[in-house]
UniProtKB/TrEMBL annotation:
Membrane-crossing segments per the record: none
InterPro entries according to UniProt: MoCofactor_Util/Proc (IPR052698), XdhC_CoxI (IPR003777), XdhC_Rossmann_dom (IPR027051)
Organism of origin: Vreelandella maris
Pfam family, one: XdhC_C
Domain XdhC Rossmann per the UniProt entry, residue ranges: 177-319
Protein name: XdhC family protein
Amino acid sequence: MQHLDRQVIEQALTWCQEGKTVWLCTVLATFGSSPRAPGSWMAVDQAGKHIGSLSGGCVEEDFIQRLREGEFDRTITITRYGDSEDAQSAHITLPCGGLLDILIERLPSTSDTREHLTTLLATLDGHYQLIRNVDVSTGTHGFSEDASLGPRVVQQKAQGHDQPTMIQMRIAPARRLIIAGISAISAPCAAFAVTLGFEVIVCDPDEAACADFSVPGVEVKALLPSRYIASGVCHSATAVVALTHDPRIDDLAMIEAVRTPAFYIGVMGSRRTSTARAERLIRSGGLTEAQIDRLHMPIGLALGSKTPAEIALAVMADIVRVQHGKTISELSQ
């Protein structure tokens, strides 16, 4: 299953190519608890069809109803939900009692819009690292290169003004998890990853095992994982994990994965097995010490895991830790 961000932009592009006006809605900021984080998207066409979400459902329903009544015809609108003092949204109470600021862009079906959405899609596929810039006063949008870390949404405000003049949105590749090999841990690991919002691909050369593997939202490929990894599918938001204990699958996957920009590469095994694997990968696989240092082995956080589900939890917890730039020592603080 494709990551939700990619689904939203791909559908918006399809509607645009069909000659439809599209409203692209972005969560700008949340105050208090909120179901969706800043940067989350929803796209709506002129008939009220929508993809993505902004909250638990109430905001989406209200927005679509107001759209059908002729609101949001300006190029740029910023609205707030959950504010009892706002006449437009006072009747909307967010599930967690928070506030939600939404950027609403009316995108007509033009060549500029198609080009813009195409670039967004390519960025989500990992081809670029970009910041999306929206000028609130003029309604124009564009991109600038980005190679830094930071908040997903930044609002620039003029002194003494509540409304932003420029909004910058960091567009990161959609998070992807490649699971090399099918084992007892692969299914719970894939299920956890889907829940966390990852695009998940499971690879194994055993066609029968692939046919029997059934986790909703997971793409299964009956081929050697190393071949898939070598095809250029890994970007900076990709994690690669090998979970089979079979060096014919795990070792080859590691050899290819360290040649990619994947942010997390891990392989299952005891400390003794991991030491032996490191020596083997250097001796037979031609890996360098620096490449070996990129491998998380043994994989996962040391949770005392025993069952497949517990091991899968430890794996995904470690992936999330690395993604957020946390060291092991910081977890105990």
